[in-house]
Amino acid sequence: MSKKVVLTREASKNKPWQTYFSQNGYEVMSIPLIKTQPIKINLSREQQETDWLFLTSANAVEYFFTNQYERSNYKIAVIGEKTKEKLAEFGHEPSFVPSIYQSEVFLEEWLNENPEKTSILLPQSNLSRTIIKDTLIEKGYIVFSIELYETIFPEASKKLLTEQLKLNETQIIVFASPSAWKNFYSIAKSFPAQKEKWHIASIGSITTEAILADGWEVKYQPKTFTMKHLADLIIQEELK
C-alpha cells in the first residue's frame, strides 16, 4: 500500500485534498507544479458581442469575470463541474454543459445542439489545447480565442520536487492537467531508477494521453473526471 500522496495542482486547489487524504490515513505533500496569473486584455467590440462564451476551466471563469466585463448576457457553455460551480459564484448559469467533461465530447454535443453558425468568445490559458477553436473554425463558426491567463512552473516547486524525488520512496503522484505533468516530467526524467516507485494518478483522458506519450504508465484514472472520483478511486484501490 502506497501511503504517501503528492498533489501537484495549484496550492489553493490542493488544500481540501490534503485534508481528505490525511483523514484517510495518508501522508500528503503539496507541490504545486503550476501557477496561473492573469494576462491584461481589452476585448474588442466584436469579442464583446459574440453570441456564446465558452469557459473550459474554473480559472477562465474567475479571471474573465474578475475583469468585470460589462456584458453579462452571453450564452455560456462550460466544461467541468468545478467550472460550473465557479460560474455560479459569479451569479451565472450555463446554457450548455456536456455529459462528459472532455473537449471532444463537448464539441460533439454542442455542435449537435447548435448547427447554425454563430460567434464564440473562447478565453483560455496560454497553454490550452486548440481543438475547440480549430474544430469550430473548420466548421464555419466565428471564434475569438484569447489568452486570458498564463500557466507557469513555480521556481520554489522545482527545488521541492527535486528533493522529494531524491528520497526514492514509493508514492502516488496526482496530476490534473497536461501542464502539471510536463513540468513534473522535465525533472523526473533525470531519475529513471526511481520510476517504478512512482504510481501515477490522472484525473482525465487528456492528462493521461500526455503521460502515456512520454512512455509512462497511469495506475489510476477515474471514469468520472473529477478530483473527488480520483481521490476515492485511489483510496479504494490501495485498500485491496
From TrEMBL:
Alphabetical GO biological process terms: protoporphyrinogen IX biosynthetic process; uroporphyrinogen III biosynthetic process
Q: List residues traversing the bilayer.
A: none
Q: What pathway, per the record?
A: Porphyrin-containing compound metabolism; protoporphyrin-IX biosynthesis; coproporphyrinogen-III from 5-aminolevulinate: step 3/4
Catalytic activity line of the entry: hydroxymethylbilane = uroporphyrinogen III + H2O
Enzyme type, top EC level:
lyase
Keyword vocabulary terms for this entry:
Lyase, Porphyrin biosynthesis
GO molecular function, a single term:
uroporphyrinogen-III synthase activity
Which InterPro entries has this protein been placed in?
Answer: 4pyrrol_syn_uPrphyn_synt_sf, 4pyrrol_synth_uPrphyn_synth, UROS/Hem4
Gene3D superfamilies membership: 3.40.50.10090
Which EC number(s) does UniProt give?
A: 4.2.1.75
Similarity comment: family membership = Belongs to the uroporphyrinogen-III synthase family.
Family matches, as PANTHER family: UROPORPHYRINOGEN-III SYNTHASE, CHLOROPLASTIC
- Functional summary from the UniProt entry: Catalyzes cyclization of the linear tetrapyrrole, hydroxymethylbilane, to the macrocyclic uroporphyrinogen III.
- Name-wise, this protein is Uroporphyrinogen-III synthase
